[in-house]
Amino acid sequence: MKRITIDPITRLEGHGKIEIFLKDDGDVENVYFQVPELRGFEKFCEGRPVEELSQIVTKICGVCPGCHHMAAGKATDAVFGVEPPPTAKKLRELFFMAHFIHSHIAHFYALAAPDFVVGPTAPAAERNVLGLIAKVGVEIGTEVLKQRRIAQEIQALLGGHQTHVVMNMPGGVRKGLTEDERKDIVEKAKGFVEFSQFSLKIFNDVVLGNKEYVDIILNGPYSLNLHSMGLVDENNKVNFYDGKVRVVDTEGNEHCKYAPEDYREFVEERVEPWSYLKFPYLKKIGWKGFVEGQDSGVYHATPLSRLNVADGMATPLAQAEYEKMYETLGGKPVHATLAMHWARLIELLYSSERCLELAQDPEITGTDLRAKLGNIPGEGIGIVEAQRGTLTHHYWTNEKGIVTKVNIIVGTTNNNAAICMSLKKAAQGLIKKGVEVSDGILNMVEMAFRAYDPCFSCATHSLPGQMPLVVNFRDKDANIIRTVTRN
Amino acid sequence: MEFEPTIVSFLCNWCSYTGADLAGTSRMKYAHNVRVIRVMCSGRVEPTFVFKAFREGADGVLICGCHPGDCHYHEGNYKCLRRYHLIKKYLDQMGIEQDRLRLAWISASEGKQFAELADEMTETIKSLGPCKVKNVMETLT
Amino acid sequence: MANEKPKLKVAIYWGAACGGCCVSVLDVHEKLFDVVAAADLVFWPIALDFKYKDVEAMPDKHIDVTLYNGAVRNSENEHIAKLLRQKSKIMVAYGSCAHMGGIPGLANFTTKEDLFKRVYEETESTVNPDKVRPVPKYKVPEGELELPEFYNDVRALDQVVDVDYYLPGCPPQTERFVEVFMAIVTGAELPPPGSVVGANEKTLCDECERKQTENKLIKEFKRPWEIQDDGETCFLEQGVICMGPATRGGCGARCIEGNAPCRGCYGPPSTSPDPGAKMMSAIATMIDSNEEDEITTIVDQIADPAGTFYRFSLPGSIFRRKLFEKE
Ligand code: SF4
Ligand code: SF4
Ligand code: SF4
Ligand code: FES
Q1: Stretch 261-290 of chain A: residues touching chain C, C-beta under 8 Å
Q2: Distance CA C119, CA B96 (A)
Q3: Of C151, C185, C212, which residue is a domain's last?
Q4: Kindly report the CA angle at B76 between B72 and B79, in degrees rounded to 5?
Q5: pTM for the model
Q6: CATH class of this structure's domain B7-133
Q7: Which ligand is nearest to the CA of C257?
Q8: Of C106, C102, C108, nearest in space to C170 by CA
Q9: Cβ(C265) to ligand 3 under 6 A?
């Protein structure tokens, strides 16, 4: 039997390896997606003072550190049995919106868009954000960098350290917002809303306007019939920071809706000897193997699943886009893997609108930043939505608040089984006897993977080696102030 | 073969070293396991000295300084005392028995006390067995 | 902008890392174009579609500079570190993980066995009655699958290959990276190999804007949530452990800006061969007592000295890991 190895999978957060086994006639026999890495935060957080965890766990992922920081913040509040005051809560959510904006922008432009705009089978050296800029124009590229940077600046302002945030304290936050800072964020948030709408327009023109792409999205090998998971607020609208976890089955009916503290009744994880990453599944159904369908325990937790589980978006513009998407794709739930990109842009718009709402909330500049702490009850669970799925942190401490046990189910982990299956399906659809296995075909296999992984702000600035390129530096009136030419 | 521990001792120049010297010149017999390093003051003993001693193969570390109030540099031995307690707590977290480190006050005239201390500590370390810090370094390659 | 000189060939790789170091390189924002103008990135899995085979095909010393971030946790990390060392003229340990082991290095408080047991058997959501564990080689019906071997110890990069420069920080501040990068590009004289670059010799306290007195004295240590931080006074003087006195400056006091005490990601100044030792010395000077009983009481208030003083540096410390019976 022949085999093809893609190692490392590039343009993704974290390590990964795809093994494709071919039959003798060239058809795909099986595909394994292996995660070759483990660091073991669950173990080495033991012994640390619980208030340190919100800073330690950000180091699980430097691309979505804010998600771990927030889940840890909430779990730590729960360990102390307190709720942060309203201002603190809103500041956290404001930070979190900036975090989503920066990540979603990056994912779309750096990861997803090159595959569509430059073309899925374009040469490797062009299939990245610079190739994208070459196609769509430098202004857009510059705007992408700028919006992402602004979102990051908001994060740094609220969170201290620009990457590994130090915002949360048990029961609240360390730092408030001044009136001037608030006003500034209002302006920036307006820019985000505009930019999100613009991004949806690009998606509309470039992807939806191309019959071939729509066909790939809807009918290609990129569809998987799975249950969906996501966090919703009290009105069943999409929420990233707070609420209950809702799961709908492949047909769109509610499978369960649980409060964070009950997660163990609904989710279990399985170990396979060929990957360091575990495979979660729905406990009520049980593990039925890597199979699709209503009877399978496999679910996904992605932008698309979040939209699938919700009854809508909590902000008006995003709600309109939400309706449009389901109308176009034939109603809920949607199972086309590549529709995740669309869902992500709708979430970008929601985050931007919510960012603006929060910045306009008078309470946001309040000075009551931390709840009073009583004794330490010793166990706490916190759940938020990470960009790439529902994130659960669970801590136990002794009476001094020293951590005795930790359990974490990371966003991507939720999708481990789904990713394996998506890859297999894509490979089986694309690699056929008689078809030459080109680099482009392999990239199309990876596309199935990339759809799941929004947590990849980095690639925004990715640079190929040899591509001819002219970069114009412009001032705000669009005058060229400098030109760099590479060849 | 019976385990013969290596104990590194840091003795302050003004009291403890003289005390140990007295033990020697008065031909008092004491365990030969104690290797003496002279420092100007117990306050000069950096935590690094202790850690390095263990890493180089010491099974125990003994620090001796002047009695409280008698330090030639006034405060050195108090500083040492504070460090000592911090280091002990750290050793414990690192899985190293706290008894492998000891701090004692020895005056210039306390040769006998020093000899007894050396014997006593050697016994303690013998019962603990060899310190494994060095092995951990060796697994690196 | 004319650029006559041949471009620098740069590789960026992550071992046991979080990705934050890669992000910090990308966060050059406007400076991006200067970096691009000066460098060809020949290998960077997070952002570019080049694979291991591309690196293996390069002649020795083909790469001018490799920025290696992340600790060495498994056989793959080690293999690629050695491969890149062979292919590179300058090897930079980029970020705390490569520099001293970093946060993943906290795993040296435990063993591979205990860590696997917790993750794959005991975690409350895991169901694994057969005690299945990931293994380096596993036969599936279609063939054999391989995984890197997970080591018992986390190592800093220089415990595996020779390192020319260390650029500390978790992650390094992007401005510091750009300074160092530009120095290499312009051919400015570099410090002797083995040096820490992109950080100061003086400690963080030196650049910290919090109010501090000449002699910090501490009667009682407190957990950060036990004080009502005034936002102005030195954390240590408020009784909260801050690694400032034992940490190099250069980060711009990021955490302090966010009203959080420093945890030492920039590592100790070059005068101290052990990061925590420097902190222990500093604290011993500050404890305001000469009474043994009182001293032990105060010392006991430090919740997790090893995990705090060596938050980013356990593998790079003198003891390197916790000792266990079995060893
Ligand atoms: S040094 Fe910090 S930012 Fe860099 S990889 Fe390690 S944990 Fe991430
Ligand atoms: S100890 Fe911390 S808060 Fe105090 S001066 Fe130093 S860095 Fe600043
Ligand atoms: S304040 Fe300390 S922990 Fe924070 S970035 Fe600076 S050196 Fe690192
Ligand atoms: S001189 Fe003896 S302890 Fe200071």
Answers
A1: 263-264, 267-276, 278, 280, 287
A2: 26
A3: C151
A4: 165
A5: 0.91
A6: alpha beta
A7: 3
A8: C102
A9: yes
